[in-house]
Amino acid sequence: MDAVTLTNVQFQYPNTDRPILDDVSLSFPVGEWTAIIGRNGSGKSTLARLIDGLLMPKQGQINVCGLSVTEENMAQVHQQVGIVFQNPDNQFVGATVADDVAFGLENRQVATKEMAPRIQRALAAVGMEKMANAEPAMLSGGQKQRVAIAGILALKPKVIILDEATSMLDPAGRQLILDLLQRLRGERNYTIISITHDPVEMATADRVLVLDAGQVIRQGKTATVLQDVDLLRRIGVGVPAGQALRQALVDRGVFVPAQYFTEEAMVEWLCQQL
C-alpha cells in the first residue's frame, strides 16, 4: 500500500525555460523511509512542496493517503503531511516551546481541552517535555529541530518530509534526530521522505531515489544505490564513510557483503574478521 503516489507529474516555475520536474511517476509505500538525493536544482524540494500541496503540478496527478492533491482537498492533505525544514530558527513562531507546538493545533482549530495532552505527548515523544516553558533562544539547533518535529507529531500526520532538516546540525545533533525519527517510525508506522545531501541520513533510509535535471534517474534499496559510487560523485553527493571504506576494500580484492555500508555495519564486519 502506498502513502504517496505521483503519476506523470510536471512542474515548471514562471519565467524559466524548462520544467523543474518532468513526467515524474513515483510511489512511497506506507512505513518506508525514502531518501531523495541529487544536485542543487534537480527538483528535490519542489517535489516535497508538491506532495504537501504547497505547489500544484502543471500536469499529472498526486495522491496522498487516498486523497487527490487538489485545491478542494488541500486542508485534508495538509492534515496528512508534515514538513521539517532546514533552518530551525525559521520554524519558531511561539514565545515558548509549548506555544510553538500549540500554534499548529490552533490553526487546525483543535479543541482547547484536547490541546494540552497532545502537546505533552508530542514533546515527550521527542524528549523535550521538560523544556515546555523554555524560550527558543535557550535551545540548541538539535533541540529546535526536535521541537519542530513535536509540532508535526501533535498534528498526527501519516507522512513526514525532512527537507534538508539535519543539514545545519552538528554530527551528534544530526544522529540524535535520525535515531529519534527511526524510533518513531517503528512505533507509529510513519512514511518518511528525506531530502538530503548528507551521507549519514542517506544511509538511514530503506530506499534511495536519485533526481537529476527533473527526472528520476535511479532508485532502489539503499545498499544497492550506494554501491554506485561513480553516480554519487557525479551528482555531487558524498559517499557515506562506511560505503567508502567498503568500496576501498572491494577495489583491493577483499569481499565485503553489500549490506555492510554504514559505519556501524563496517565496524561489525571488521570485528568479525579479527
Automatic annotation (TrEMBL):
It is found in: Cell membrane. SMART domains: AAA (SM00382). Keywords: ATP-binding, Cell membrane, Membrane, Nucleotide-binding, Translocase, Transport. It comes from the Bacteria. Residues 4-238 form the ABC transporter domain. It holds the Pfam family ABC_tran. One of its GO terms (cellular component) is ATP-binding cassette (ABC) transporter complex. The keyword Cell membrane applies. One of its GO terms (molecular function) is ATP hydrolysis activity. Belongs to the ABC transporter superfamily. This is Energy-coupling factor transporter ATPase. It comes from Limosilactobacillus pontis.
